[in-house]
Amino acid sequence: MTPPRDPLPPLAELWMLKDGADQDVVVSSRMRLARNVQGFRFRARFRPDEAERLERHLRGALKAARPELQYASLKDLTSAQRDVLFERHMVSAEHVQEGHARGVGFSADGAVSVMVNEEDHLRLQVFAPGLDLPRVDAEVNTLDDRLAALVPFSYSDTWGYLTSCPTNTGTGLRVSVMLHLPALSFRPEAKGGQGEPGIVKVSKAAQKLGLTVRGTHGESSRAEGDFYQVSNQVTLGRSPEQALSDLAAMLTQVVDYERNSRAILVKEDKTRLEDVVWRAWATLRHARRMSSREALAHLSALRLGTCLQLIDTVSLRTLHTLMVAMQPGHLQQAAGRELRPQERDVVRAQLIRDTLGAA
Amino acid sequence: MTPPRDPLPPLAELWMLKDGADQDVVVSSRMRLARNVQGFRFRARFRPDEAERLERHLRGALKAARPELQYASLKDLTSAQRDVLFERHMVSAEHVQEGHARGVGFSADGAVSVMVNEEDHLRLQVFAPGLDLPRVDAEVNTLDDRLAALVPFSYSDTWGYLTSCPTNTGTGLRVSVMLHLPALSFRPEAKGGQGEPGIVKVSKAAQKLGLTVRGTHGESSRAEGDFYQVSNQVTLGRSPEQALSDLAAMLTQVVDYERNSRAILVKEDKTRLEDVVWRAWATLRHARRMSSREALAHLSALRLGTCLQLIDTVSLRTLHTLMVAMQPGHLQQAAGRELRPQERDVVRAQLIRDTLGAA
Fold this sequence. Notes:
Two copies of one chain form a homodimer. By secondary structure, chain A is of the alpha+beta class. Chain A has helices at residues 50-65, 79-87, 93-97, 133-150, 182-185, 198-208, 240-286, 292-307, 316-325, 328-335, 341-357, and strands at 26-35, 70-73, 103-106, 112-116, 122-129, 155-156, 160-161, 173-180, 211-214, 227-232. Chain A has a domain at 1-22 and 29-170: Creatine Kinase, Chain A, domain 2 (2-Layer Sandwich). Chain A contains eleven helices and ten strands. In chain A, the strands form two sheets. In chain A, strands 2-3-4-5-1-8-10-9 form an eight-stranded antiparallel sheet, covered by helices on one side. In chain A, a hairpin with a 3-residue loop joins strand 6 (155-156) and strand 7 (160-161). In chain A, helix 1 (50-65) crosses helix 4, helix 2 crosses helix 10 and helix 8 (292-307) runs antiparallel to helix 9 (316-325). The longest helix of chain A is centred in the C-terminal third of the chain and has 47 residues, at 240-286. The A-B interface holds A 271-272, 274-275, 278-279, 281-283, 285-289, 346, 349 and B 271-272, 274-275, 278-279, 281-283, 285-289, 346, 349.
């Protein structure tokens, strides 16, 4: 079977462009399960051909469990296509870097993705826009159950699900939400810019609850554009229900804290806020070259301004579209060729101008 | 005689808003003469009442020599009005700081100004837009001749005109031009931003010719917005004609150098240039607060873009109007009250938005 010529779903269909609950602060909800298959070694200890054999096996199981999912072997994808998958959070940074017998199954809207031969044999992921933990919980468990009926997962009565890295052993579960926390990231100007932003307190509080706060792409990335991922850390000796309720309890507080901080900013320093928001709008619409870091910072400011109704020139959907489309892989995929970083900055600025000019 | 209620000419009449020769690079030409009056001590050694007596004397002479000039004693002006005079280059920074028996005579367009009791008894200044040294030369000398016929100036056959500070003794002449040198101020990006901008070479070459290159307000100010004042340094043992021709020769080269540098930028890095220009335009039209330093940098970029026809959204006259009107004294004069620096930034941004929105 030859892979489809362009296996990537169109941008306009992506789950992340849809509205969700509490979307002024909560960008998305995600649940991920790590699973390994009995009778196969962990990835680090694969024998020759074991990876290929497992990929074929899992691809077949996936087709049986969820026929509507597409599947792509990473080796069949161009570098830009793999980057596109990564930029849509459908595969991890590690997964796209090496193509050997790795693959990914995914739904047309990208909300469901299954990495094959990542760190674990299987990583099942379900996303939803806004705050919707019950939905991602239900969907990922349905998928898990169907696959478990077809493939015997490595499981120990003592340890739970066995995983390649012990930090996932037990539930194999990571539940996380992506939060937009611009007000908590603002340095209080009244104290001469020296005050501690609220996000520092959030991180400390999260740690005490066994949660972590990280940048948009997980472990190794910094929080760009004031987007933070909050997720559970403990998978061993704690039930999935406990992980979910810990996160949900923390979330309620963080969402309130961010909203209150925004309200205080609007009340006490509206001009400063409007200045940031309008400068972002103006710069995005007129710059002739722009790095993705700068673009994300401006899009973040516009997102805040839009949620606070300080500006109504652009929809959240358009902002979210740009956040995805302005990334290097998407730019190169759209251009149909590799772009040097300097070229990308020019193409990115053009895309943003075109998009916002018509917004 | 009571001073007029608002002795300041309206902004719209100012000489600096008019077109001039070579105005893409040369903002303005200026000639200044330092003169002292026989029978009066230098300012530093004034006896009680000597300053007042001299001011009355010179005010009368000025009225007789040029009846159309207005006259204001600085003590009769508000702090904002004195700042306005300074911001229009009609008085020096030193002159406005202390009001004791100091005054200024000036034409309605501000092109002629005569400081009384500054460092010297008299400082005669004439400005013209663009490059026009013969005009300012002729006008300042006509004024000098008329005053000399009414007031005996301190003069030595050996030294020439005697002045309070020996650096002015001799001709008492300072001839200067204000240049806009954005291309020569650009750091060459090709060398990783480490290359030496052309303005450094210009400064070195100027020194060898006995000329100096400084910021917009002379001695103690830095070059903001890429505006540089080039002036003669030597007043002793060199004729006014020599000072003029030295400066003129240097100018031809600097103007060519700047124009060539602009042409190279347009040819080799047009996107970078357009990026700077359009960001400046966008930010000026949308920011909600802005320092005068930032505003001047953006106005400078727009001036460059306008001269290079990269942008045609605004006239040079409007840009020059804003450069004057957005300064603290002008803002406070327009507001009719003192403004705290933070307030000024908000009022400035508003003025710029209003002006460019309708441009």
